[in-house]
């Protein structure tokens, strides 16, 4: 399964990513006081969402119905079953942002 690699040592940082043949910019932030990550999503230099918290088992941007958003599901998950949250210690170690086909658009 494909996933988005997060470079924790670069946070805060932004990068381009192609999702379903559309280029987006993701900007990753970390809240060290409460140990969580957020993502900003941009398309064509327009901010579509800012401060989306990465929550374990909850697809990113799942509460937004907008055709400008990625046509893939970005799902924070730990295939090993050892984690039930997204933290500094486990993101990129056991928890990854998996890319799944979005069947809801059919």
Q: Report the biggest beta sheet as strand number plus sense, adding barrel if it closes.
A: 4 strands, antiparallel
Give the termini separation.
Answer: 21 Å
Number of helices, where a helix is a run of at least 4 consecutive DSSP H or I residues: 0
Task: Give the topology string: H per helix, E per strand.
Answer: EEEEEEE
E-strand count? 7
In round numbers, the mean pLDDT is 93
Unreliable runs, pLDDT <50, ≥5 residues? Answer: none
% residues in beta strands: 35-45%
3D shape: globular
Description:
- It is a single chain.
- The chain has 106 residues and is mainly β.
- The chain has one domain.
- It is 0% helix and 44% strand.
- A four-stranded antiparallel beta sheet has the order 2-3-4-5, with no helix packed on it. The chain has a three-stranded antiparallel beta sheet with strand order 1-7-6, with no helix packed on it.
- It is globular.
- It starts with a strand and ends in a 5-residue tail after the last strand.
């Amino acid at each position: 399964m494909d996933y988005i690699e997060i470079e924790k040592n670069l946070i805060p940082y932004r990068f381009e990513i192609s999702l379903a043949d559309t280029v987006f910019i993701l900007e990753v932030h970390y809240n060290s006081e409460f140990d969580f990550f957020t993502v900003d999503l941009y398309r064509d230099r327009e901010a579509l969402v800012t401060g989306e918290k990465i929550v374990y088992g909850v697809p990113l941007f799942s509460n937004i119905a907008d055709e400008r958003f990625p046509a893939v599901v970005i799902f924070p998950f730990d295939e090993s079953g050892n984690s039930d949250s997204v933290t500094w210690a486990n993101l990129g170690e056991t928890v990854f942002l998996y890319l799944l086909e979005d069947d809801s658009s059919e």
